[in-house]
Structure formats: structure tokens, C-alpha cells
Amino acid sequence: MTSTPRARRAPHRVLLSTVVSLGVAAGLTAGATPAPAATGIDLCAEVGYEAGFRGDALVTAIAVGMAESSCNPLASNVQNNTPPSRDRGLWEINDYWHPEVSDACAFDAQCNANAAYRISNGGTNWQPWSTYNQGAHQRYLGAAQAAVDRLGHHDPGPAPLVYPAKSGRVVATRSADGRLELFAAGANGVSHAWQTAVNGAWSDWESLGGPGSARLAIGPDADGRLEVFALNGSTLQHRYQLQPSGTWSNWETFGGGGHDLAVGTNQDGRLEVIASGPVGIFHKYQTAPNSGWSDWETAGGGPADSEVRLGKAPDGRLEVFALNTTTFQHQWQTAVNGGWSSWETFGGGGHALTVDHNQDGRLEVLASGPAGIFHKYQTSPTSWSDWEAAGGPADARISSERSPDGRVEAFAINGTTAQHIWQTGVNAPYGQWDTFGSGGTEIFATANADGRIEVFGASSAGVYHKWQTGFSTWSDWAWLNTTAGPAVN
Q: DSSP assignment of 152-190, as one string?
């Protein structure tokens, strides 16, 4: 792919630096004076519980507070924040991205906790915190659990939502240590590359074999190991990490052939795989987290030979969206970790789709067709807007990712052009499409551990990538390392 000069957008994003202010917090506070550890962590536990955090969400909240500020209510950081801004208090609420949180509130322990509870959707979405994305909070999880034990409250509560990874002929997601792992499907099988350091450079490509010209999906097991699935018209196989961020198994048979697939995580940690074929949709799921699999089961119909994507509602229920050239339908879990509804009409036919979520948790669906891109979004947990035209390229492959402040950004590519569009504010409408490059066959967006979006574009010339150098600037298209990677036709 070739790079096309890009108009500079309005400065609604901060620039990245060594320590980044990612929507809420810059991570470890360079200028903070931590309180004594025991006092600080017990303070996070107390005010976190009073704010509403429960169960695993309380433990995670305390650990994030320790990673952000050492649970010091007076912590403050201004270093390397551009535009000039401050990260404040226990959960380092940034005054640029959250001006609704006053200084008086941010430096008050309970008010800061209340704001963190709201911004994290009750402890179900920690993606706005860079320390969570980088895994820096994990070292504090044991101490956080001990603080909860001292507090004496063990009320059940929600675990953080693990949103489905998107699927396609090129897929990527973060390993447990924060490095991106990338898979691309060519005619001769699947190729693999990975970051050699968190947010860093890339390895050379390696050939893995497996199904040729496959559709791919990737998801995390409950213990942090990734599993990748590859499906073509005759074969479905998978391989998995033998330990988190570690080496991979060989390919193993996972079922027969089909058209497309997606993988998501139930709220109890069990992976769920959805696949389409000539007689509709089928699914297969882990019988326990990190464990074996059920047999394939029919999903009760659904569009034949459809493109399928998974989303996760704010309460943790998975939703399936299935689109072919004439029909668009969806179904959803009727209870968290539970059974499935019947199929319901969701729109007319189209070419491709992507599913994402707003900062407030509401699902957002974008679909392409001959008239461009349209989108539809939840107006409540059980209701949806009408379809709204968004413009953009016709019959495009599309992908999406959330910027660190929670806005959805979508990317579309067809044979002649690549473009992108972004929400003008958190939970807000979209702006105008902007040129992103030349044409290709596939596009896929994901986020680095520091929150920067990284986009992979494929064509018969190989797989290239483009990444944010700041929140309003992008690199040129480039190879990952020394070669262009596999052709994706």
C-alpha cells in the first residue's frame, strides 16, 4: 500500500510521549509522593468499595490505583502530558480529558473513586487506564486482594469485560505481556509476526502452514494464553499458546469447513466460537475456563455463508451479528454466560461489518455496502437506533478500534481507496471521512499497550502497517520488518 498525505485533524487528542496521558491517566506518576504503602492501598480499598466496586472489579480497581498513584490521594503528574494537563489523585483522573472532575473532587479520595467508578463503567472497562493496558497493575493484585480481605467485604461483583477480538483475514491482539501478535492468511497458509518489545519493533514473518486463504479469529483464554482459529471452505483448525505470551502449539483440528468465524469471551472466562456455513450459524464453547470444548451446536438458523462478528453488551452478554448479501440478523445471550435468543432481523444485506463499543458500553455496529458505510447503535441494553448513513467507500472491508479517550475510530478499504472516520467526542456522532491510503483487500485495527492505534492493511503486495505517532498524526505505511509479508487476495 502507498501512503496518501493526510489532512491534520482538529487537536482533539493528546500527543503521545514516553509517559502518555491516555484519556484518564498517564500511568506511573513521575512527580507523585506516594503515601505509605499499607495506608495507601487500604484507602483505595475503602473508597473503592464505597464508590460501588465489588468482587473482582474491586480488586482490579485497587491494583490500578496502586499502579497509577501508589494510592496517594494527593498524587499529581504533569510531566510529558501534551496538551498541558494534570493527572490527579488516587486514580490519576486527567483534567484535560475529564474537566467535569474538578480539582476539589480529584484530590478528594472518595470523589476520585466515584469518578473512577463512573469512567470504568462500574469496573467493567479499564481500557482508559494505560497501566491496565500495559499490565502494570498485575503486580499489585495479590496486595489488592489482601486489602479487600482486611476490609472484610467480599460481595460478588462484575469482572472486567473482555471484549471479543475482531476477525478477518488479518488479525492481531495483545499477548498477556502487552506485545501485539499478528496473523495473516495467504493462499499457502497462515503467517505470523509479533512485536519484539511492548509498543516496539516487529519480528520477521514466519510461515505456520494451516488452512490456505482462511478467515481468522483470535481470543484470550482466562489464564492469558491466546488461541487463534483458521477456517476455509474445507478445514477449521486452531493453535494456542502453551503459556501466556509464550510459544505456540501445532495446528489441531477444530471442525469442518465454513465461510467465516468469530471468537468471544463469556463473562466467566470461557471462549465461545461462532462459525457460519451454507446451512447457517453454529457455535462451540469451552466447557470450563482454559478447558476442553463442547461439540458443535446449531445456533438455530442465521444467514447462510455470512460474515459473523461478536460484540459484548454492557452487562456481559455476548451478541452475534451475521451479514450476507441479502440478510442481516443478530441474536444474543438471554443471560450472562447463558443460552441464546432466536434470530432477529437487524437490517438488509451488505458486504462487511465491524462491531465495537462506546465508552459507556453501548454496542456500535458499522456495515458496508454499495452505498457506503452505515451504522447502528444501542440506545439502551435492549433497543437500537435506526441505521444512519455515514458515507465512506463502497463495498469496503472495515475494522474499528477505540481511541484512548473512548471514541470509536473506523477504517475502511476497497480496491481503490482506504479511508477512516472517528467520533467527534466520547459517545458522540462521527465526523467526516479522511483519506488513509490506497486500495487493498483487508484492513484491521487494534491498540498497542500504550493505547496507540495500529492499523494493518493487506493486498496482493503483502501486509503493511500504519500507526499513530500522536493522537492527531500517523506514520506512513511500512513493512513490519524486512519483508512485505504474505499476499492476501
A: T-----PPPP-PPPP-BSEEEEE-TTS-EEEEEEETTEE
The strand pair at 397-402 and 388-391 is best described as unpaired
**What angle, rounded to 10 degrees, do the helices at 37-51 and 109-119 form?**
60
Whole-prediction pTM value?
Answer: 0.82
Report whether 380 contacts 401 (CB < 8 A): no
Contacts of 23 (CB under 8 A, 6+ apart): 94, 97, 128, 403, 404, 405, 406, 451
Q: Is 197 within 8 Å of 134 (Cβ atoms)?
A: no
Residue with cell 481507496: 417
Alpha-carbon distance of 173 to 301, in angstroms, equals 30
Residue 488 to residues 212, 251, 316, 402, 464: CA-CA distances in angstroms? 10, 20, 34, 25, 11
Give the whole-angstrom CA distance, residue 489 versus residue 480.
19
- 107 residue type, one letter: F
E strands, 326-433, in order: 327-332, 344-348, 352-357, 363-369, 372-380, 383-384, 388-391, 397-402, 408-413, 417-422
Q: Which strand ranges, in their side-by-side order, compose the sheet holding 189-194?
A: 170-174, 180-186, 189-194, 206-209
Per the CB < 8 A criterion, the answer to whether 55 and 155 are in contact is yes
Cα 359 from Cα 361, distance rounded (Å) = 5
pLDDT tens column, 398-457 = 999 998 777 899 999 999 999 999 999 888 999 999 999 999 999 999 998 877 899 999
| CB half-sphere exposure, 180, CA atoms < 13 A | 29
Helix 37-51 with 55-69: angle, nearest 10 deg: 140
Cα–Cα distance, 136 to 145 (Å, whole number): 16
Q: Compute the C-alpha angle 165/166/170, nearest 5°.
A: 115
* Among candidate residues 265, 238, 240, the one with its CA nearest the CA of residue 254: 238
Alpha helices, DSSP H, located in 329-443: none
Report how far residue 121's alpha carbon sits from residue 84's, in angstroms, rounded to the nearest whole number: 26
CB 90 within 8 A of CB 68: yes
Identify the H or E element spanning 76.
strand 76-77
Residue 101 to residue 427: CA distance in whole angstroms: 18
Listed in sequence order, the residues at least 6 apart from 120 whose beta carbon sits closer than 8 Å to its beta carbon are 57, 61, 126, 128, 129
340 neighbors 333 (Cβ within 8 angstroms):
yes
Judge whether 169 and 460 are in contact, CB under 8 Å. Answer: no
Nearest to 199 by CA among 398, 412, 19: 19
Cα–Cα distance measured from residue 429 to residue 375, given in angstroms and rounded to the nearest whole number: 10
Euclidean distance between CA atoms 479 and 201, whole angstroms: 11
pLDDT at residue 15 is higher than 80: no
